[in-house]
Design a protein that fits this description.
This protein has helices spanning 3-35, 39-62, 65-68, 74-96, 106-120, 138-148, 152-165, 181-203, 209-214, 217-240; strands at 130-132, 171-173. The protein has a domain at 172-241. The protein contains 10 helices and 2 strands, in the order H-H-H-H-H-E-H-H-E-H-H-H. Helix 1 runs antiparallel to helix 2 (39-62). Residues 234-241 have low confidence and may be disordered. 73% of the residues lie in helices and 2% in strands. Strands 1-2 form a two-stranded antiparallel ribbon. The protein is an all-alpha fold.
Length: 241
């Protein structure tokens, strides 16, 4: 390979890492808005961080980033960014906006530690590109808690349940999971459009409740697909025996 071509591929690989790191910039901006008590722009920024996270992996695989930057651990950068955007900041938002109260505030500490342990599990993502246990989508949980206006005691219970589910022996799909992949990507695109519609209505102070209820098809599909994967795995085990 000509040296100038290799330099280009190395430069492109570093640009992918830089693109991933923009999620940290989003995190910092979102945190300042939340600290100031302004959740609307914070939700927009955190949604932008999710878009970055959903696309940087594809770029990394397509452009063979590991080959051209072997001295840099892009997975570790991604995990750090995801922990801040998917767990730490949403949990702080739950405290800042009073989604938990009294003794329930302690559950935030439980969730923060459980999330960190979840990111550090060696089998957090399987060879089949599935997540083992609840994959730390605390931003989604907090999103629904806030917009549905659940009482603090309900929020505390939900946070505790999902903290426990991080250790559950259940496989959840990712966008890379081969079974149902086309359907999963289609659902993910539709779900994203609905969520951005909700954010627009929320931003402009228009009623969003009906669209919010409609958006539950996303989490529902996520749960149903987990049962599907479990059944498929069980069937494969029986055939193997």
């Amino acid at each position: 390979m000509p040296e100038q071509h290799r330099h280009f591929f190395v430069y492109r690989a570093w640009m992918v890492h830089f693109y991933t790191s923009l999620g940290l910039v989003c995190a910092l901006i979102a945190l300042t808005f939340i600290a100031a008590g302004n959740i609307k722009p914070a939700l927009i920024i955190l949604s932008l961080a999710m878009v970055i996270d959903a696309t940087d992996g594809t770029l990394a695989r397509t452009w063979n980033v590991k080959k051209y930057t072997p001295q840099f651990d892009g997975r570790k950068l991604d995990d750090i960014t995801d922990y801040i955007n998917y767990a730490f900041i949403p949990l702080y938002a739950a405290y800042r906006f009073g989604m938990v109260a009294g003794a329930g505030v302690a559950v935030l500490a439980v969730a923060a530690i459980a999330a960190a342990f979840g990111f550090c599990k060696s089998g957090a993502k399987t060879q089949n590109d599935t997540y083992t246990g609840f994959p730390n989508y605390w931003n989604v949980i907090i999103f629904y808690m806030y917009l549905f206006h659940f009482p603090p005691v309900v929020n505390a219970i939900l946070l505790l349940i999902f903290s426990i589910l991080i250790w559950a022996p259940i496989e959840f799909i990712s966008l890379s999971t081969k079974p149902l992949r086309k359907l999963t990507i289609t659902i993910a695109i539709l779900y994203s459009l609905v969520i951005f519609g909700i954010l627009y209505l929320f931003w402009t102070d228009q009623p969003y409740t009906n669209l919010l209820w409609l958006s539950l098809f996303g989490p529902l599909y996520y749960i149903i697909s987990a049962f599907y994967l479990r059944g498929k795995t069980g069937a494969n085990l029986e055939l193997a025996q």
